[in-house]
Every structure is written in C-alpha cells, then in structure tokens.
Amino acid sequence: MRTALERIVRALDDALDLGELARQAALSPLHFHRIFRGMLGETPLELQRRLRLERAAARLAESDASVTSIAFDAGYETHESFTRAFRSAYSVSPSEFRARARQARSSCQGLPRYELAARCGVHFHAQLASELTISFAQRTFAPGDHPMQIEIEDMPEMRVAAVRHVGPYNTISEAFARLGELAGPAGLVPEQAPTMLAIYHDDPEATPQAELRSDAALVVPEGKPLPPGLTELRIAAGRYARGTHIGPYTLLGDAWARLMGEWLAQSEHRVGSAMSYEIYRNTPLTAPESELRTDLYLPIA
C-alpha cells in the first residue's frame, strides 16, 4: 500500500491505472480497493482528487494563475465543476479563498490552510514528490463502536445456484428476486434457514457502474438439478476469516474495508485464491435494518 500511494502522489497529474496498481500489489483489483481504503481512509481516486484540490488551494493562495487554468490542472473540465468541488471541500468558492489569502497576506496574517482532513496524513506541499510522510494511523472508534471481531473458520466446499447481476452493486436485490422466482418452484429453497449469499467480482472504482458483475446465490444440495436461468458455482473449501456486520447493507463496503484494511493488514495472513463472499443470516423481511446480520468471508493463506 505504501508503494501504491507513492506511485499516486508522485504522478499526481497522471490518470490512475487501478489495475496496474493492483497488479503491483499482487492483489485482485477488488481486494486492492478494499485494503487501500481500509488502511488509508480513502480510495485511490479520492486520495488523488483531494491532493489535487489541496494543490489548487495552494496555487490560489500563492500564485496569480487564473482560476480556470488552476481548475484544468486539478483535472476538472470546466470552471463550474471545479468551483462546486472546491466549495464542497473548503466551504468557499475559489475566488473567495484567493481573496482571503490576499487579505491575510496584506495584514501579515497566516494564509488560510489548504490541508483537508485525511487519516493517512498525506497532504500536498511543494516537495511532495521527494518528501513523503505516510501515517497508517490506527482507527479511532466512536462511542458504541468497536473493532471488528474476526474468527478463522475452515469452510467446506459449497455448491450454489446463482443469478448473475450486471450493474450497480446496490441493485443486486433484482437478481435475488429472480433467484427466488427460479429456485422456489424448483424445490431448491429449504423451509428452514436457506443460505443466501452474494459474490462481488469487480472494483467499483475501476469498473463502470453499469458493468459491475456480481452473483446472487443460494446454497443447494449436491445432485439437485438446476432449472434454466440458474448457474452452478463452486465455492472452494478452505480457511476463511469471518467478520460479522450488524446493520444496513449500505455500510457493507465500510465493513469490508475494516476487515481487509485493518484486521488483514495487521494479521499474519494474506489473501487466499478463493472467492470472497457474503452470507445473509436474516433479511429485511425478518429483521429491521439496524439488526440485519451479514457474515463476510475472506479466503486467507
């Protein structure tokens, strides 16, 4: 992760090749994304955008370059899009930020700060390319929050019937609905506690939302024939790290980042070759959102 971060900040104007960063780290793009975000508190693209904005703020304060040229250098195609992003980050427009800096300089006061909050401790400054300090800070927990508890489990091979979903991950419920329509009449859904799971294949930063691939799946008995429309997948047996997320599905991305960016990074394990997956222990039909329980399974070696 340190090497990947250095590659990003030392070529701040280059387009990010997230696939290459993942290959250099010997990880799949999806695993790389989760570990990077968990360790540094930002995705690679978020880090790049923040550093470019910090550089833009420094140039507004210390140079006479036009706002438009600074916007283009920061990677924005229009003055308007840069102004929106800058105001969201600094609560003032670029012109207002520059005016405050000039007023502070004329009155011999300190210039406005351009560093934005960042857990990794990396900020833009003129010597960024040669002097890079990285802080892989420990996460601080809010009241009621706590470190994720991880268990190591030896999992058997699982045969699953799956429906492929292509599109935003937060719409995978469409595939689960189709799975139920096909698996129910085929007698594949047990009356007691069916094991429903999801498998995600792509990095949401490197793959367009409309092209993200995931599978809605159900564990099915050996030898049971599958109806047309369902695909058989095999999830390999092996050792897995299991973390449990209690709460809404919208926070599952944060849970994966904690599992891989916090626990895995500090453990003696590395990512295994099998697929990672989620098992849903209840559903919105049987539990309120705050009590939804999802087990995250990460193959380890």
In short:
The protein is of the alpha+beta class and 301 residues long. It is built from 9 helices and 8 strands.
Write down the CATH topology of the largest domain. Answer: Multidrug-efflux Transporter 1 Regulator Bmrr, Chain A
Strand order of the largest sheet: 1-6-8-7-3-4-2-5
- Provide the number of structural domains: 2
State the end-to-end distance: 19 Å
Cα gyration radius (Å)? 23 Å
Question: What CATH architecture of the largest domain do you see?
Answer: Alpha-Beta Barrel
* Average pLDDT score: 89
**Uncertain stretches of 5 or more adjacent residues:** 140-144
Q: Which range does the strand content fall in? A: 15-25%
Number of helical runs? 9
Question: What multimeric state do the chains show?
Answer: single chain
Helix content: 25-40%
By CATH, the superfamily of the largest domain comes out as Regulatory factor, effector binding domain
H and E order: HHHHHHHEEHEEEEHEE
Reported for the largest beta sheet, the result is: 8 strands, antiparallel
Shape descriptor reads elongated
Number of strands: 8
Output the CATH class name of the largest domain.
Answer: Alpha Beta
Description:
Helix 2 (18-24) crosses helix 3 and helix 4 (44-62) crosses helix 7. The protein folds into two domains: 2-106, Arc Repressor Mutant, subunit A (Orthogonal Bundle); 150-299, Regulatory factor, effector binding domain (Multidrug-efflux Transporter 1 Regulator Bmrr, Chain A, Alpha-Beta Barrel). It contains nine helices and eight strands. The chain is elongated, with a radius of gyration of 23 Å. Mean pLDDT is 89; it is low at 140-144. Strands 1-6-8-7-3-4-2-5 form an eight-stranded antiparallel β-sheet, covered by helices on one side. Helices cover 35% and strands 17% of the residues. It starts with a helix and ends with a strand. With 301 residues, it is an alpha+beta fold.
